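Researcher: Sequence of Glutathione S-transferase domain protein follows. Predict its structure.
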Amino acid sequence: MQLIFGSASPFVRKVRIALEILGLGERVTLVPVSTTPVAPAEELAAINPIAKIPVLVTASGSRIYGSAVIADYLQTLADAPVLIPASGDARWEVLHRQALIDGMTEAAVMSRYEQLRPAELRWAPWVDAQMEKVWRGLEAMEADSPALDGEPTIAEIALACLLGYLDFRFADRPWREDFPELARWFGVFDQRPEMVLTAPV
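Model: Prediction complete. C-alpha cells:
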C-alpha cells in the first residue's frame, strides 16, 4: 500500500497514527507530495480529482480518499486494537465524535489557509468565525473529558492531531489555560511513540 501524504497535515497524521497503532505501518510506503489549495500537485490531482491528502492506494490499486474513510478501511485489516467498533452504539459514538473533531480540524485548516493569503486579501472575521468553531468544539470535549481516558479510538487520535496542529500553526492562540483537562490528557497522549514519530514539520 501507499499513503500519499504531507507531514504538516493533521488529517494525514491521524491516518499515520492509526497505521502505527494497528501494526500496519510496515505495510505502507509513504509517498510525500507538496501541494497547496491554489497550486495542487499534478501527481496528486491525477489520483484524487479534488487534489486533497491523504490518499491511500491499496494493494489492489484502489484509491481511498479522506482520513475517516481510510481509517475505517485500515481497521478492516487488523482485528485489534479496535479504533473503530464494527457495529452498534459504540461505533456510532466513535464516528460522531470523530466527525465533530474533523470539522473542528477543517475549520483550523481553513483559518491557516486564510493567513497565507496576501495581507490585503485576508478577512479577519472569517478566521475568527472558524476558530470560534474550534473553541466551541473544545468546550464540548473538555466537558466530556473523562471519555478520553482509556484505550484510544479514532476519535481520540483525531483530537490529539487537532491539538498538535493548534500548537504547530496557532501558537498565538494558546488553548491549554481554557481547557485544563484536555491539556492534562494531551500532555500524556503526546508522549506516545506514534505521536513523536508523526510530529508535524
